[in-house]
Amino acid sequence: MALALNLLSCSSMASITTTSTKTAIPEPMRRRRSAVVFIKASASSDQSDKVDGSSSRRKDDKPAFNPFGFVTDNPSSRNAIQLEETPAEDGNVGQMLYRIEDKGKDYGSYIKSGKFRWFVRETGSSWSRRGTIVFLHGAPTQSYSYRVVMAQMADAGFHCFAPDWIGFGFSDKPQPGYGFNYTEEEFHEEFDKLIEVLGIKSPIFLVVQGFLVGSYGLTWVLKNPSKVSKLAILNSPLTSASPVPGLFQKLRIPLYGEFTCQNAVMAERFIEAGSAYVLKLEKADVYRLPYLASSGPGFALLEAARKADFKDISSRIATGFSAGRWDRPILIGWGVSDKYLPRSEAEEFQKGNPDAVKVKLIEGAGHMPQEDWPEKVVDALRAFL
After folding, report:
1. What is the C-alpha separation between 267 and 124, in angstroms, rounded?
2. CB–CB of 235/360 below 8 Å?
3. Of the given ranges (110-124, 271-285, 323-337, 349-363), which has the lowest mean pLDDT?
4. pLDDT for 175-203, tens place per residue?
5. Which residues form the AB hydrolase-1 domain (predicted)?
6. CA-CA distances (angstroms) from residue 197 to 4, 129, 219?
7. pTM reported for the whole predicted model
């Protein structure tokens, strides 16, 4: 379904480029038919070429209608819908996959655990003198976000692991109802199996970030307090009042969610919407790749989002780590420019257990500080661990 939707978008844009644009286009640009060409042609009539993809202006100063604005108004997303000059055998989506299929697997390998294959990144070694750190990502992203932090923490003497959760990134994406139903309990069970297969000895240092499966990392800690010596939390929902981003609300709407989950640029746009920055193309390619390759990750996200009770999960996290219930050190590394979660999340969480919780504000970083400003995350982790 993902491939079909992407092909449909591409073919539709090619048609509009050839039939709807009256501005004369130079010969080389006509050969490269793309949504980007369409936008530039419109902008050229106004002697402007907006870098940020904003719409051109008509003579009456009203914005020109752009039916593909939800994709093309973002520089890193444009490449997802370009039609190449010489199509690949499998079509333009096939050519995009060919171009990016080997990207983003830094430090990673496939590990069989139980019925499933996990993609796990690893830096450092079992001989690392300062202990083991496990990094857990949130939805709808993947462990790729930790690549720089992992490399630098290994240099500092730590043994680091970062798996892609089942259904995400490069790990297996089983069809719901066939051995995995994307419930909190099943995520916990499979994570326990992975820890055992990897031979990770408790207690560990755990770093968690993000929504949904990121939150499941925290509820796993509450079930297994003896397995974690220190916990670091990067921008994650931490109180019963935590807002739920629009993406997850849309996924829970019948039928509309099925379409939403098959947006190939969903993950990169989610990252960018929560930050002050735009992803570089080579990074956007990696976050996009699983959603281009198959419909599996989209439907996995859909199922997980519909099975989750976001308010209940956040309430259990707030209560479980409060004073009198949790006494081990917790670092909150908070990107202050997060557009999904306010700074008050970290402050309220700290008030619940001031003796155990320390807050480190990360200026200049948004919802995913490990992607926005990994060096500052490393500095905070090294001081804490």
Report:
1. 28
2. no
3. 271-285
4. 988 889 999 999 999 999 999 999 999 89
5. 132-239
6. 37, 21, 21
7. 0.78
Other CB atoms within a 10 A radius of the CB of residue 174 amount to 18
- Sign (positive/negative) of CA torsion 262, 264, 266, 267? positive
Structure tokens at 290: 């699983």
Q: What is the pLDDT of residues 32-72, one digit of tens each?
A: 333 333 333 333 333 333 334 333 444 445 555 444 444 44
The answer, yes or no, to whether residue 251 has pLDDT greater than 90, is: yes
- Name the one residue in this structure whose structure tokens are 């996959």: 97
Could you write out the three-class secondary structure of the chain? CHHHHHHHHHHHHHHHHHHCCCCCCCHHHHHCCEHHHHHHHHHHCCCCCCCCCCCCECCCCCECCCCCHHHHCCHHHHHHHECCCCCCCCHHHHHHHHHHCCCCCCCEEEEEECCEEEEEEEECCCCCCCCEEEEECCECCCHHHHHHHHHHHHHCCCEEEEECCCCCCCCCCCCCCCCCCCCHHHHHHHHHHHHHHHCCCCCEEEEEECECHHHHHHHHHHHCHHHEEEEEEECCCCCCCCCCCHHHHHHCCCCHHHHHCCCCCHHHHHHHHCCCCCCCHHHHHHHHHHHHHCCHHHHHHHHHHHHCCHHHHHHHHHHHCCCCCCCCCEEEEEECCCCCCCCHHHHHHHHHCCCCEEEEEECCCCCCHHHHCHHHHHHHHHHHC
- Calculate the CA 77 to chain-centre distance: 14
pLDDT score at 160: 98
* The pLDDT value given to residue 96: 55
Burial of 112 (0-12, 13-18, 19+ CB in 10 A): exposed
> How many CB atoms within 10 Å of residue 289?
24
Confidence category of residue 274, pLDDT binned at 50, 70, 90: very high
In the numeric block, which tokens belong to residue 206?
A: 């755990």
* Distance in angstroms (rounded) separating the CA atoms of residues 137 and 236: 10
pLDDT digits (tens, 9 = 90+) for 352-361: 999 999 999 9
Q: Confirm if 226 and 202 have CB atoms less than 8 A apart.
A: yes
